[in-house]
Amino acid sequence: MSHNQSQAPDLTAWQILASLGDSLMIVDRNYRVIWSKEPLMEDDQSVVGQFCYRVFADRDTPCPGSCPVRPMFADGRPHSAERHFVTSSGEEIWREAKAYPIVDRRGVVAFAARISFDITHRKKRQSRLEGELMTLERSLEEMNRFQLGEMPFQPQGKIPLTRRELEVLRLTAQGLSKPRIAHVLGISQNTVKRHVVNIFNKLGVNDRAQAAVWAARQGLV
């Protein structure tokens, strides 16, 4: 066992901790790797004793902002950072790294435990949801430009729909579920259900499909 390896903390504990992420790396205050579990590398131990910034970023100095280890050593608190890169095949990858302090018997931060995760699926899903939300918000703004105001669309011989009921109707006709409608409008699911019941009663329909047909005929969709 090398001198650098002999400085490492109890590796049994870190082997357990390593199961929490895609990779786990322990570095000392000089950014030298003393233990590593990196699935993307054929030999984890080949990086032990090397500087982490040279191994993983091909740099001559510590990474300025793409790694949480540097700020963690600076203030002794956990830090996280996200990194986005594109592979040679054009695939976009996002990873999140978290750095946690490891203190010695005197309570001084001696090492950093850097755990990283692949968050590509989460980032793509978040981006897709944000795009959908922007589309829905634009749709609601467009509807509000119709100046429905005091006299919203009124089924012949029936009580007129309120502005909120029109918003719920339009989103319902677009196929959104009650939980999604509640999220977009910032109201509770029970409130959405109450609006849907009122809409059905005012329109004299029995289901979402019939309500959607009415909304389409009125130009709401």
Averaged pLDDT: 78
Provide the CATH topology of the largest domain.
Beta-Lactamase
Largest sheet: 5 strands, antiparallel
Range of strand content: 15-25%
Distance between the termini: 70 Å
Write the CATH homologous superfamily of the largest domain. Answer: PAS domain
* Category by helix and strand content: alpha+beta
Q: Could you name the CATH class of the largest domain?
A: Alpha Beta
Can you give a write-up of this model?
- The protein is of the alpha+beta class and 221 residues long.
- The chain folds into 2 domains: 3-118, 2-Layer Sandwich (Beta-Lactamase); 124-217, Orthogonal Bundle (Arc Repressor Mutant, subunit A).
- 43% of the residues lie in helices and 19% in strands.
- It has 9 helices and 5 strands.
- The chain has helices at residues 3-6, 11-18, 52-57, 69-75, 120-144, 163-173, 178-185, 189-203, 208-217; strands spanning 23-28, 33-37, 79-86, 92-103, 109-118.
- It has a 5-stranded antiparallel sheet, sandwiched between helices.
- α7 (178-185) crosses α8.
- It is elongated and about 80 Å long.
